[in-house]
Design a protein that fits this description.
Elements lengths: L1 H14 L1 H28 L16 E4 L8 E5 L1 H12 L7 E5 L2 E5 L2 E2 L4 E5 L3 E5 L8 E2 L15 E2 L3 E4 L2 E7 L3 E3 L2 H9 L11 E4 L2 E6 L2 E3 L6 E4 L2 E6 L2 E3 L17 E12 L4 E3 L4 H7 L3 E13 L3 E6 L6 E21 L7 E22 L17 E15 L1 E6 L6 E13 L7 E4 L1 E6 L10 E4 L5 E3 L7 E2 L5
Parallel strand pairs: 1-3, 2-4, 3-6, 4-7, 5-10, 6-11, 7-12, 10-13, 11-14, 12-15, 13-16, 14-17, 15-18, 17-19, 18-19, 19-21, 20-22, 21-23, 22-23, 23-24, 24-25, 24-26, 25-27, 26-28, 27-29, 29-30
Antiparallel strand pairs: 8-9, 28-32, 30-31
The protein binds 2-acetamido-2-deoxy-beta-D-glucopyranose (10 copies).
One 2-acetamido-2-deoxy-beta-D-glucopyranose binds next to loops.
């Protein structure tokens, strides 16, 4: 019955052209309306928060920062919430520790400390923002291996997120951000309004078993990520950002007297060295005596318009050894890979392997500099000459480079046993002074471009000596290019 009636109704309706016409109008308008709504919807995709990705459970206990009264409005100061959360987690160490989830929002805070067996998890669109009024930043004693605040004598500002004497720390997330609001600090630094050394964004001292991954660090007041005298540190899938100009000393990662460390799969573009391996400064670093060693740095894209992509030093007075730097792209930078030191530093830089490093639009590619004369005070020992040796450059490529190599040793600090193999670097303009050396001893295996300086011996691919130059002390350094 129903079917019959239904059909008849449709039949009656369509029997009239007028009705059909009306129907077409209705259909047309409906389509137009739906189409428009889709556009508006598409537009809103960029504004409406998507359903947030579920956060993984990485510890037996998990907390939400809001459980501790935090408000993510970018204005409320949440230091107490962070402190209470860390205190709560500090009681759970024996039971596997705790995870502190930072949900989407802007979480303003003064500096706070981490605890052992803790995971800090930053959800997508979570931003921890460091308060930029130095009144809120506690002062800490200078690092023992530096003696000084580094910029000023005496104490220094602590770091926004700090940890010391800890074990088993994870800082990770769905690419949430820790933002140091460095602008205010850089300005005060330039205007000489600060009486103490600026604080790093993230500093972990005397600790072990550390994993930092999948987050973004930006606009640190000073060095961005500073692991100090730590063991077993992994840093991966990171984005580290600061303006490429006028963001003084915003190094990306500074492994300092650390051992067993991996930095990989990350992007760093900052206002100073992207990475600088250190181990203390002159007499203080020599006395502290902790080297940086067993470090692997790989699969990075780095950029530094002011300084260099990957540095070792200049503070290296505890020694630096056994470092592998591979699969690195340095782009639009002042310098590519640099070792820097000076008389007074003492110790050594040795057993350093560079492999598959590409320079794209870099002023000077490879640098060894032995007169980086910046000292904490006049108490350094001028006779404390660092030893620079056993350095290997392999598969070095690039284009748009002005000086491929500048290795400047000296009578007191000669550079020993460097080797080159498989290098081809496209030069930007000049054809002279593009491979500069002084007091450098070592060899080249096979042919490389540009042609090596006269200081180096030549070997064939089989490692047989082809030509012994024997003029290791020859000097051809030209800072004008
Ligand atoms: C944290 O709590 C807030 C407010 O109660 C909530 O909106 C958010 O979904 C929670 N996030 C997590 C990761 O539990
Ligand atoms: C973190 O702990 C260190 C060492 O106990 C202390 O000097 C520093 O003031 C603490 N920082 C904060 C913000 O509480
Ligand atoms: C993480 O966020 C940064 C800054 O917004 C962005 O540049 C980067 O591409 C993001 N990384 C991933 C894997 O989404
Ligand atoms: C720095 O020291 C001067 C002189 O003691 C003082 O007037 C000034 O307030 C201090 N500045 C800061 C930022 O502490
Ligand atoms: C290094 O730390 C990781 C955690 O980041 C841990 O899983 C691993 O067991 C540690 N390795 C050693 C040798 O202690
Ligand atoms: C971390 O980042 C990498 C590379 O972007 C990605 O493959 C991985 O899934 C991320 N891990 C988490 C937990 O989001
Ligand atoms: C050098 O470092 C690598 C990677 O950290 C490590 O596997 C190796 O054992 C170290 N070599 C020496 C001689 O310590
Ligand atoms: C060399 O490094 C680049 C990154 O600069 C990477 O894309 C490439 O896969 C690496 N090549 C090898 C053979 O590992
Ligand atoms: C020269 O350095 C290489 C590492 O680049 C090392 O294997 C070799 O033993 C060193 N040679 C001498 C004579 O020290
Ligand atoms: C070359 O320099 C070394 C030290 O760097 C020195 O021992 C040696 O005597 C010098 N040789 C010449 C010929 O000057």
């Amino acid at each position: 019955m129903w079917r019959f009636h239904h059909r008849r109704w449709i039949h009656t309706l369509f029997s009239s052209y007028k009705t059909l016409f009306t129907l077409l109008w209705v259909f047309g308008f409906t389509s137009l309306f739906l189409w428009q709504r889709n556009i508006v919807d598409g537009f809103f995709i960029f504004r409406r928060p998507l359903p947030s990705r579920p956060l993984p459970h990485l510890r037996p206990f998990a907390f939400n920062l809001t459980d501790f009264g935090a408000v993510g409005d970018g204005v409320t100061i949440n230091t107490k919430a962070f402190e209470n959360a860390v205190f709560t987690i500090s009681k759970l160490g024996k039971r596997g520790g705790g995870q502190l989830n930072i949900p989407a929002g802007k979480w303003l805070t003064a500096p706070f400390n981490l605890t052992s067996h803790m995971t800090l998890f930053l959800a997508e669109d979570a931003v921890i923002i460091g308060i930029d009024d130095e009144k809120y930043w506690p002062l800490m004693p200078p690092l023992p291996s530096y003696g000084y605040g580094r910029e000023h004598p005496g104490p220094r500002y602590g770091s926004l997120i700090h940890g010391q004497n800890l074990k088993d720390i994870v800082i990770t997330g769905h690419n949430g951000t820790i933002n140091g609001q460095g602008q205010a600090w850089w300005k005060k630094y330039r205007q000489k309004l600060l009486n103490h050394t600026r604080g790093p964004l993230l500093q972990i001292m005397w600790s072990s078993d550390i994993l930092i991954s999948n987050i973004t660090l930006r606009d640190s007041p000073f060095w961005t990520l500073h692991p100090y005298d730590c063991k077993n540190v992994t840093i991966r899938h990171m984005t580290i950002l600061a303006p490429i100009f006028e963001a003084p000393n915003t190094d990306g990662i500074d492994p300092d007297s650390c051992e067993d460390m991996v930095i990989e799969d990350s992007y760093i573009s900052v206002g100073d060295d992207a990475i600088a391996i250190k181990s203390g400064w002159d007499q203080y670093g020599i006395a502290y005596g902790r080297p940086s060693k067993n470090i692997v740095i790989r699969n990075l894209i780095v950029r530094s318009m002011v300084s260099s992509g990957i540095s070792i030093g200049s503070e290296m007075s505890g020694g630096v050894s056994n470092v592998t730097i591979e699969n690195i792209l340095v782009w639009d930078s002042r310098r590519g890979v640099r070792i820097k030191t000076a008389a007074g530093r003492g110790a050594y830089v040795k057993d350093i392997k560079y492999r598959n490093v590409t320079f794209e639009n870099v002023r000077v590619g490879i640098i060894i500099k032995t007169d980086y004369n910046e000292h904490p005070d006049m108490g350094f020992n001028r006779e404390a000459f660092p030893v620079i040796r056993d350095i290997r450059y392999e598969s070095i490529h690039g284009e748009g480079v002005r000086v491929a190599v500048r290795m400047q040793g000296s009578l007191e600090i000669p550079v020993r046993n460097v080797s080159f193999r498989d290098m081809s670097v496209g030069m930007r303009d000049k054809k002279k002074h593009i491979f500069q050396c002084s007091y450098v001893e070592g060899g080249v295996i096979g042919s490389i471009f540009p042609a090596p300086c006269v200081n180096l011996d030549l070997y064939d691919e089989q490692g047989l000596l082809v030509k012994k130059y024997g003029s290791a002390n020859a000097s051809d350094i030209d800072y004008d290019i």
